[in-house]
DNA sequence: CTGTTAGCGCGTTCAA
DNA sequence: TTGAACGCGCTAACAG
């Protein structure tokens, strides 16, 4: 490359990286021509080895399955990264083994910072702590308590879920079923949305608990809801841990000839747009606006800061959005 | 690190990379202890600079939006990569500008190979060609003709779409609407699923064309279908370019009090599981089994081959799956 | 305006 | 069984 343009490697570096060293127009042209001719692109591994920066952000997600939250988070991150000259590489965790692998990739220095949103317990706390100890700037979306050494974004899902269930109780429903994600339901003690459910019932002296899994995908949700709604002790309400599951429940009810909310009230979590096109429209708890720019800013603040910043915490704002289904 | 364990850097390298050089048990222990104590992880940039391999695969997708196809592709890739000691980094393209950025990241050597599935025309052909010219092993899912220098996976969507529309014609429907993705509908000449639609109609001498966008997300699909079905010239059938859009159309029909398939027949594309829980079940064209292991194998064959392999081509197998909605 | 040189952190030879 | 020394491709500092 350098010899084809008949210049030194340093000059090539200066031309291609566009730094402000003065370069003769003719020399620059020779370099650019040679680069085009050879299809030359600088090796990023060498570059970041030298510069000690990759200009990349790692986005760590449970799956590439397109949970609505992840989608918005990803688009906001990509946009803001773009504007700042960073690229984004996404790592999917899927399971515990690969969580370890993903952390190792980050420890290996693939990115200058990380935005981490992993639900469930695939990502062990000590892995996260070890990564944070590296000094890697990171923002973690989690409600767990053990997360330290990085910014944390919390979601008031327990309170919001309790509010949803209390809303159902206020409507006179007593037999209320919970349809949750596997990672919440199959666990020794209730957490998250399930905890909100049990808390609300307890607070109002309702003894009956109907806890099912099925919120993880639409098909299972439909089947679970169908089972619930065809049982002799049909619930008067279903609180689903996701809007997608709640929407499946609405369909299940309608397919059984039940009226929503007459025969069964349904509330979901997340406030996705699709809740506006169901009949009736879906009641839900979640953010009013889907905006993660504040979360992403946390990360870029850290990246642009000279000295390490103190750990910050954001609590997202969720509200009960009452629509037709409850 | 090396000095803490009181050994040379070479010994550290040997211990941590676990190659077969004999190392005294006591030395190995010293190294491992020091590594744990320091939270040391080898720098991957330096490693891959030296080894000229990253042990990573790049997965390039249009969005992280979780199109069902991408999900299956991603899980199969992750599984097979895992088994072979590779990690996967995902790059989202979103738009033309970032397509260029994603290609640059790959050219910069972030991965040893790439699996590329970008719909629409965000990813220009010359970018792909330039990348292929690098010698980077890659597999591209595309029906375009200009793709060269890499393995190509094709989908018989034109023929399958035509088959779907002919099936509707055979059922006596004449006024058939097409609900497509923006990237296919807003284009000078028909391609892909839209081309299948027009071809079938032409072949059977049907003049009427009802072409709408709206298949890109469920909300738009619902609204588009509602508009179509409330118009005075209500179509007798809707062929939707995605199952998700088709399912929204079924719901739109039901919400309008129309019977499916009595008043309107509906067919989708993709054969997603969710088509089994609609009332009626969704007719669709797509793969019978969702399995991308053959596609992923193409890539690993290339990675493991000593000398460059000739470009191969896979044509995926799609069939019309007739269920209740048509 | 441009070239020379010294590392960035690792893996690999060769010598001990 | 271990260590010393070189170089992967690049950027930053300095020399010219």
Topology:
The structure is a homodimer of 326-residue chains.
Chain A: H1 2-5, H2 9-17, H3 25-38, H4 44-51, E1 56-61, H5 68-83, E2 87-92, H6 96-107, E3 113-117, H7 125-133, E4 138-141, E5 151-154, H8 157-170, E6 176-180, H9 182-185, H10 192-203, E7 210-213, H11 218-230, E8 237-240, H12 243-255, E9 265-269, E10 283-286, H13 293-304, E11 313-315, E12 319-321
Helix pairs in contact in A: 5-13, 8-10, 11-12
Chain A binds a DNA duplex (16 and 16 nucleotides) through residues 7-14, 17, 19, 21-24, 27, 42-52.
- Amount of helix of chain A: 40-55%
Major sheet of chain A: size, sense and barrel closure?
Answer: 6 strands, parallel
Order of helices and strands of chain A: HHHHEHEHEHEEHEHHEHEHEEHEE
Which regions of chain A are unreliable across 5 or more consecutive residues at pLDDT < 50? none
Largest interface, and how many residues on either side? A-B, 58 and 59 residues
User: Strand fraction band of chain A?
Assistant: 15-25%
Find the count of extended strands of chain A (DSSP E, 2+ residues): 12
C-alpha termini separation of chain A: 68 Å
Instruction: Look at the helices and sheets of chain A and give the structural class.
Output: alpha/beta
Rg of chain A over CA atoms, rounded to whole Å, is 25 Å
Described by the principal axes of the CA atoms, the overall outline of chain A is elongated
How many distinct helices of chain A? 13
